[in-house]
Each structure stands twice: as structure tokens, then as C-alpha cells.
Design goal:
By secondary structure, the protein is mainly α. Helices cover about 60% and strands about 0% of the residues. It has two domains: about 50 residues, Arc Repressor Mutant, subunit A (Orthogonal Bundle), CATH 1.10.10; about 160 residues, Orthogonal Bundle (Tetracycline Repressor, domain 2). The termini are far apart.
């Protein structure tokens, strides 16, 4: 008796769009940004190369959408990390929590994180990307500024501490697994953020907190 094969359910445009974004991440994981191609991504989803244009204008538009989604995900995780801090958390703990969240996100989403900041695959002028990056930066800057106003950070201006701590988190995330000889101390690489908070950036002796040196907040990205 001949077995009847049921036709595959028709996917909506939203489903295909989501699958293309997932496939783009898988493609980055497999071949890196230089080798990523729309043809291969389309093949992963089971559509033709030409069909991708119904959902994304070009490769840059697809990867820009992936980056925006990644930034929004990291932003949500960062907000949750701040909300979970106890009311009596040590001074500067909120800044460390953001850094730890960044490093942990990178650990499980390395290709996406590398795409989010500095990739030539993106349309850096895309307004949604600009807005997403600024929203993430504002969260970090505002968190640092609040800690500085409470006496954390010595006499260093909040703007400079914000840039330094963001850069440290990004650098640790990028270096994980790449350090010659491995990680030099016990524990996870994000623990460095707490060590630095406790040992280097201490409250000033005179109680005067560093002030913001700029009228506007400029994202390092």
C-alpha cells in the first residue's frame, strides 16, 4: 500500500524571517563573517537564494537585524541582572553585574556578540541599530553614573569610568579562551570584574565622587 506523505505546513513570512536570522547565526558559527553567504543561509532554511530578498534586502540587512536582536537580548538580560541585586549590594556591584552579564552572554553567543560591535557586515547607519546600541550604552552609563554619585570610582569622571568598564567587559569577553597559558587565576573570567571593583576603583578618601565631564553621553560603539 502506498504511503501518503502529508505536505509540509506553509510557513508564514514571520516564521521564515526568524529562521533566516537563526540560520545567519549558525552560518557565522560555522564559517565566520568572511565566509558567510546568503546562498548558504537560504539553503539552511530550505528556500532559494532569490527568496531571501522577500524578507531582507541584502546580506547587510539580514545581519543587521540579527545584531539588533542580539543587543535587545543583552539589554534585557542586563536589566534583569540589575533588578536581581539585593538592596544592600556593595558599592559598584551594579557595574560588576553588567560586566558579568556581558561576559556570560558572549560565552554562549560569541558570533552574535562579535557581530553586534564592529562588524563590517552591518549597516551602521540603520536607525534601529543605532537606537539599540544607544539604549544598551545608556543603561551602562547611567548605572556607572549612579554608582559614582554614591561615592564609587574615586575622583575619576563617570564618563571615563563608563568607557573603561565597558571596554574591560568587552575585552574579557573577546579574550576568553584565547589567553596564552589559560586564565591566570581560579574562577571564571568575569570574576576579574569584581576583583577590579574591589581592589582598584575604590571610594575616594575625601568622599568626593567624580563628576560627569560631558553634557551628552556618547556611546563607544
Amino acid at each position: 500500500m502506498c504511503k501518503v506523505t502529508k505536505p509540509k505546513p506553509r510557513r508564514s513570512a514571520a516564521q521564515i524571517r526568524g529562521e533566516l536570522m537563526q540560520a545567519a547565526v549558525a552560518e557565522l558559527d560555522a564559517v565566520g563573517p568572511e565566509g558567510a553567504s546568503l546562498r548558504s543561509i537560504a539553503r539552511r532554511v530550505g528556500i532559494t537564494h532569490q527568496s531571501v530578498a522577500h524578507h531582507f534586502a541584502d546580506r547587510s540587512a539580514l545581519f543587521t537585524a540579527v545584531a539588533i536582536q542580539g543587543i535587545d537580548d543583552l539589554y534585557a538580560k542586563s536589566v534583569s541582572a540589575l533588578q536581581e541585586l539585593p538592596a544592600a549590594a556593595p558599592l559598584g556591584e551594579s557595574v560588576a553585574a553588567l560586566g558579568e552579564t556581558y561576559v556570560r552572554y558572549a560565552r554562549t553567543n560569541r558570533s552574535t556578540l562579535m557581530l553586534m560591535f564592529g562588524s563590517r557586515l552591518l549597516d551602521v547607519r540603520d536607525p534601529d541599530l543605532v537606537e539599540a546600541r544607544l539604549r544598551l550604552w545608556d543603561l551602562h552609563h547611567d548605572t556607572v553614573t549612579a554608582a559614582v554619585q554614591q561615592g564609587w570610582g574615586g575622583a575619576v569622571p563617570a564618563d571615563l569610568i563608563a568607557i573603561a568598564t565597558f571596554a574591560m567587559a568587552h575585552g574579557l569577553a573577546a579574550l576568553e579562551g584565547e589567553l596564552p597559558g589559560g586564565f591566570p587565576v581560579e574562577g571564571e573570567i568575569e570574576d576579574v570584574l569584581r576583583l577590579v571593583n574591589a581592589a582598584v576603583i575604590a571610594p575616594p578618601a575625601d568622599g568626593k565622587a567624580g563628576a560627569s565631564t560631558r553634557r551628552g553621553k556618547k556611546s563607544p560603539t
